[in-house]
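#lab-general

N.A. 3:47 PM
ok so I finally got the sequence cleaned up, no stray characters, all 104 residues accounted for. can someone with queue access submit it? mine expired

B.Y. 3:52 PM
send it over

N.A. 3:53 PM
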Amino acid sequence: RRRRMAPPRVCVTGGGGYIASWLVKLLLSRGYAVHATLRDPNLMQLDGAAESLSLFKADVLDRAALAAAVEGCQGVFHVASPVPADKTVDPESEIMVPAVKGLV
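B.Y. 4:20 PM
back already:
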């Protein structure tokens, strides 16, 4: 009798965004266990979510929350990007740097 192997586990940052939510849907349909970070959890209605989706409320600048989300994962799809609430004065330091270095 063969032991059933656990599905591969991956993390998708920014899981609530347009592209990332489609990526989460695709990964679930292919049998992955998915950890998704997002600011507003709303992905539990996807097929397979109840069994294979773990949501983590996290921001790309919150290292502790991101560490919890990627724990136990074999891969990470870093799709999140900060979304400033106000007008940006310095887009490079306010958006680009956190988006690129947010998970490093």
